[in-house]
Amino acid sequence: MWSSPFITLPSSVSQIMLRVLIALIPGIAAYVWYFGPAILVSIALASVTALATEAVMLKLRNRPLKPFLSDNSALITAWLLALSIPPLAPWWLVVVGTVFGIAVAKHLYGGLGNNIFNPAMVGYAVLIISFPGHMTHWLTPHAIGMLELPFSDQLGYIFGGILPAGLTLDAVTTATPLDTLKTQLHLGLSVNEIREMPIYGYLSGKGSEIVALGFAIGGLYMLATRIITWYLPLIYLAALFSIAGFFHLYDPAHYASPLFHWFSGAAMLGAFFIFTDPIGSPTTRKGKIIYAVGAALLTWLIRTFGGFPDGVAFAALLMNICVPLIDAYSQPRVFGKKGDGK
């Protein structure tokens, strides 16, 4: 007997994770175009480390290797972490962050489906708190015409910490647009004056705004293929736009525009790939809305008043803590019951 045409087989975990990896490709391609191929080295190194750590932890937990190594979840953690740290980060920095994310944030909580926190964001938080100096050296985009480091020299620095004679790291790296904005505001410049600096483009930083657009395209692909629902990403972006827009209208000299916040840092990456993590986000529609608004508020507050230039990672981790409470108070009323459950 033939099954009805409206009955379909659910996608496996590995298929869903593979589509998420595919969705990241437009942003990665833009990253390589504007900042060079060093990011591919970080992604490859993080991927190998993630799979090796996953295998070791599975062995220690007496779990089968093949089904878990082939579900692509470790690669998601690896790619998101690699995209969150500077592409010229020393090789050991990538390894430390990846091992911590997989071993501690994922497996010590029971493995896939049981972890409370997003493993990639835990790895990032550990690195930026423990090694802040290494997390501030971002390659300058090709578009601003500054000195560029050849790929062979990038490899030499990543794996050996060596630069060509007479060349310093500050000559080929720069602060992020968010970090530059925050630093220059403290020095008394206005937003408009800061935006005249060569690292800025039409919406945000040169190159980085196109990378953010690439991640947005990948996010739309996931929406179209129903890997994620629209509640979290669109409400997060709308809330971030509203909060930033209100303060920008109130004082445009000291608060950046909402589009600047959209296309700076990890806002697009967070909206579509980090906050939508099905394990660390609420299960109800109302809960997702609360989660998205809270994440947007924390992102803006940390970016504007916090000690770190971007707030997406810490917003994700702080909201991960709130998920059990959000789920408890956002469950829909049981059919046939009153609001108090009686």
How would you portray this structure in words?
It is a single chain. By secondary structure, this protein is mainly alpha-helical. It has 2 domains: about 160 residues, no CATH class; about 110 residues, no CATH class. The chain is built from 15 helices and 2 strands. The protein has a two-stranded antiparallel sheet. The mean pLDDT is about 90.
Topology:
Blueprint: H1 13-35, H2 38-60, H3 65-69, H4 73-84, H5 91-106, H6 119-130, E1 138-139, H7 151-160, E2 173-174, H8 177-186, H9 191-194, H10 208-224, H11 231-250, H12 258-262, H13 267-274, H14 285-305, H15 312-329
Antiparallel strand pairs: 1-2
Helix pairs in contact: 1-4, 1-10, 2-4, 2-5, 4-5, 4-6, 5-6, 6-15, 10-13, 11-13, 11-14, 14-15
